[in-house]
Amino acid sequence: MNMLSYRGVYLWDVESDGAGVRLKVPMGSMDMVSMCAEKTGCRLEVQRYGGFPAKAHRFKGRQVLTAGVLIFAAGLYLLSSFIWVIRVEGNDRVAVEDILTYCQELGLKPAAWKRGVHPEEITKELLVQFPDISWVSVGIKGTDVTIKIAETIEKTEVLDKETPCDVIANMDGVILKITAERGTPMVKEGDVVKKGDVLISSEVLIGLEGEEQHVDYVAAEGTVKAKVWQQLTEELPLTYEEKIYTGETKTNKILSFWGKDADFIHPSMDDAKADVEVLFEKDLALGDFKVPISIKKEQYNIYILESRSRTVDEAKAELEETLRNKTEQCLGPYGTIEKIEVHFEEYTDCVRAKGQAVLTERIDEKRKVEKGRDAVDGTDRENHATGQ
Amino acid sequence: MRYMDLRRGVTEALDLPKEIMLDLPLISLTGREEITVENHKGILTYGEESIRVGTKVGTLCIRGQDLGLKQLTGDALVITGKLIAIEFLT
Question: Which long-range contacts link A124-127 to residues 24+ away (Cβ below 8 Å)?
């Protein structure tokens, strides 16, 4: 052992083995070990070869396996050279789709060559493109890109009280109540108005009666409630087909490559109709490295279509319900349904409902006045001068 | 001897590392489970309860239980096991 260490042979894991010792030496030093053993009169017995050099030596004649290992390593390197996943974090007002679409234009998209992606440029471009973003960080980690965003503070809505505007009707109706906060009311309770009629005018007469008066323009404001009518029509057939689930299910496993399904083994359905339900979907990954392969398991819930029929009364009840729901959906936040009148027309195969809903709705809407404050100071005065 | 004294004097005066200048053994202990001896002159005896290592300043006897030689190179050796005593024999 001393001779070996003196000659620069590295020895490790020396264990005493009765009269002798068991030790490990590098494979390349075996000639030196044999020579030292011969010189010192020791008996040398090689118990086994181990470690990476010995394993590599074993693969010496197996070209296909070696080629496989090399191809795997090359494939792994190649696949890790692409971007596979893009995540957007920290956004609230800016939609993820908008960011991803713009990133795609800049060359950052799944399956993009990693070296072709320049995070600094994308950061700058995103800041220019989206005014709502105050800070962006584009980080590439492995095959994932994480876009971290900090948004600007939302601007508070400034209520414009300067620009002159009228309050007009946004639908036909009969006025029930008018409350003008600013401006001159042009209609009163009970008046019939058409869509587009001015309800509260921006023109305000300043000055006492009998004295010199002049017109000023303000941003009219107020609420106007009116009774409005809405026409309704709906039809329902007396016979229909209903899905009856048989309880029989079939499962299908699908492999997806780059988002495209490769459904090799599809269960035989024998022309049966079925609804598809995705049980689970998982992207495959080797540790943190995501590969563009995903596995999906679907369940087919088989059903048969059965002809059903409903009576005229049932159809009428259903239609009434549908019309009420539809009217409620159309209703504004301050609106209420006063009455729904429905007339039914019965046919051999269907029932048709025609009716009208009486609603109480807010019909006020602001519209900018063309002849505004500027016009008063400019154009109007010119016209006035021309008239004189 | 006079040469060695001079060498020692210079080493101490210039605060140079003695294990290099005077070829002294440098012994490091990790708890009582591992001992590293640098600048050794070879193993003299080897056993599970006692290992003797030659050094320039005498034979270093390491006693313990389940002693084993973890590494051995021309410059250093590492012994592991439960160490009990380390002493220099003349």
Answer: A126/A99, A126/A102
